[in-house]
Input
Amino acid sequence: VQLQASGGGLVQAGGSLRLSCAASGSIFSINDMGWYRQAPGKERELVATITSGGTTNYADSVKGRFTISRDKAKNTAYLHINNLAPEDTAVYYCNAKVVVVTTHTINALDAWGQGTLVTVSS
Output
């Protein structure tokens, strides 16, 4: 199972971005998908999650500016970011709780993408 994150870049404060996270591989199903971020010198923190049923959860710091969504048919999650601020500068990582079925086993994996850098200039 692989997660490919994309969409990061350099933007000015007040700008917008859309991050994408595509899961691929021998996937039976995906439960929760989420986005986390890690700013320089700080620990990784939760940004937003979305369940398979579409229930969302956000960190207080991003409520009203970030929107998480997913396309279940494409095994892809998105993070729409509006009104970016310099403190949003970080590497953004996607996460997915993936169920993989083989001939003899069912495994639940906690998969991570490689991260995509978002830099916001003031």
